[in-house]
Write a structure and sequence with these properties.
alpha+beta; single chain; Beta-Lactamase; 6-stranded antiparallel sheet; binds methionine sulfoxide; 161 residues
């Protein structure tokens, strides 16, 4: 694929045009880094988002023995490590569930990598029943994410194994 097709219409329609393109971009490729990079780029371009990227669970010398470490992303530079249970990403990791935050200022412990971010969605990605990464999306607008995003982004992260 040389060029991403971005549909008009409502959010559902835009995702419906995006998902088959992401399937064809990722299906012949088993490298996680490459697939995460293209998914981040496609989401950023499609929805003109502020920040889209992945954090991966990595072993380290922290108290928990593991942290989320910055992976492929599109947008401004960001925090490199997030502790278990910290911020929106660390909470999604700990709870193994998608976090939708309509106003980051109202989320206790939100990690402000960039003060321009106003709302956020974080989707955990599972392998063998365990979270091994999260997809994090930040918007400059309040209340940008809803159940439609949750549904389609869950489908999209399942393209990464
Ligand atoms: N805001 C996130 C940190 C990651 S950056 O937004 C890219 C959080 O609270 O986990």
């Amino acid at each position: 694929m040389e060029k991403l097709e971005v549909s008009g219409g409502d959010k559902t329609r835009i995702y419906e045009v995006l998902v088959p393109q992401l399937i064809s971009l990722t299906e012949g490729e088993d490298d996680i880094c490459a697939n995460m990079a293209n998914i981040a780029a496609a989401l950023k371009e499609t929805f003109n988002l502020f920040w889209v990227g992945f954090y991966l669970v990595r072993e380290d010398s922290s108290q928990f023995g593991k942290s989320l470490v910055l992976g492929p992303f599109q947008g401004p530079v960001a925090c490199t490590r997030i502790a278990y249970g910290r911020g929106v990403c660390g909470t999604a990791w700990m709870e193994g569930k998608t976090m939708i935050v309509p106003d980051v200022d109202q989320f206790p412990g939100h990690i402000a990598c960039n003060s321009l971010s106003r709302s956020e969605i974080v989707v955990p990605i599972f392998r063998d029943g365990e979270v091994f990464a999260v997809l994090d999306i930040d918007s400059k607008d309040l209340d940008s994410f809803d159940e439609t995003d949750h549904t389609f982004l869950t489908m999209i992260v399942n393209l990464i194994h």
